[in-house]
Design goal:
By secondary structure, the chain is of the alpha+beta class. It is 34% helix and 23% strand. It has 12 helices and 16 strands. Strands 13-12-9-10-11-14 form a 6-stranded antiparallel sheet. It has a 4-stranded parallel sheet with strand order 3-2-1-4, with helices on both faces. A 4-stranded antiparallel sheet has the order 5-8-6-7, with helices on both faces. The radius of gyration is 21 Å and the shape is globular.
Amino acid sequence: MSRVPRPGAGPTVVFLQDQPWQSMLQLSAALRRHGVRTLRVGDVRSRDERLMTRWVFDATITLHDFLDAGFLDPRIADLQCSEVDVALLAPLVADLRTPPVLAATLSHRLAHRDKLVVSTLLRAAGVPVPDTWPADDLGAALAVSGLPVVVKRRVGAGGSGVLVARDEDEVRAALGRWGPDVFLERYEAGPTHQYGAVHVGGEVVADVASRSASVRGTHGPAARVVVDQDRRVLEVGRCATGALGGTGLVNLDLQMGPHGPLVVDVNLRAWDSLVPLRGAGVDLVAPYVETLGTAHRRSPYRRSPYRRTRSRYAGSFPADVQGAVLAHRPLAALGRATVGVPRYLVWLGPGYVAHALWLVALEWRGARRPGRRSGEVSPETGGDGLACARRR
C-alpha cells in the first residue's frame, strides 16, 4: 500500500526502512517541523506501521513503486537508510533517469557501506583506526593483537554483526556463522565516544563530540550520551569527515586508545542521539536542513548549533520510558514520560508524541504478560530500540 505525497515545491528526504528505527522516525518528525517533506519507502504490513506512517511521515510508497517511478521525483534531496538497506536501491545508480542528486548520494553511500573499505580509506588519509586483518588471516591477527579480538561483518548496522571474541573458538564459530564477508579488528578496551556532524563536501558545518552514558545491547547504539566536546574527538572526527566526503550527516563511533581516539564505525545517516542532543543544547537538525538547499521556516530550533543549558545529558524519548517499563519501574517510566512528552511536543510535534505513546503502551502490555522477566528485551522491539509489533 502506498500513500501518495501531495504536490509541493519543498525538498524531500527519502527514508528507506523496513523496520522503524528511532533515529529515522525522530529525524522525519523534525524535518516536517522545518517544512521538509519526508517519504517513507517500505511495506505497510500491520496496524502499528500504518499508524507510524500516518503520524511521522508525509507519505509512504512501497519499494517496488519507488524503484518503478517514485525515484524520478526531482525534489529528492537526500536519502536516510541503513548500510544494509541501501543495497536495495543499487539498480538506480545505473539508471540514466535517476536525478543527479539522488544518483550521487546513492553512489557515495554504496561506496562507503563496507566497514573494511572505510577503515582502509580512513587509514590512508591519516585518521587513526584500529588494526584490521582479513578473515583468513586469523593467525596473524592473534599473533599481533592477542585476545580478545573483534569479529565484524563487512556490512552491518545497529550493532548487528559485531562480536568481541574472548577465545579462538568464538572467533571460528563467528567465521562459520557469518561466512567469508567478515574481518578481524584489534580490540580497544577504552571508553566509547561519538562524533556527529553536518557537512558539505566533507567540510564541517556543525559538529558535536559526546560520550556514551549507556548502550543498548552489547554493541548497539548509545541510549544516552553526555556532551563533552572532547578536543581530541573533534579533531579526529573532522579529519575523518574530510576524508569521507559527501554531504549531509555523518556519525562516528570512537574508542579511546592509549594514544587517543580511534574510529571504529562510520554511519552516513541519522543516529540515535541526533535529535535528543537538543536537550543538551546542541542542534544539528537546522544546519542539516540548510544543506538540503532550502531556507527552512520558523521552527522551535535555534539557528546556532549550540546553546547553553543546565544539562549536558541527552536521553531519547520514548526509548528511555520503554526501558523503565521493561524493567518494571512504573514510577521511573512516569517520570521520564512527564519530561519527554512536553519536550518532544515542541521539538517534533503531536504526531511523533502520539506514536511514541502508542509504542510505550505496546511495551507496557507486553511487560505485563506472564513469564516476562524484568529487563527482558521485547520480541516486538526492532531496529534501534522501538517496538514494531507486526499485528494484522
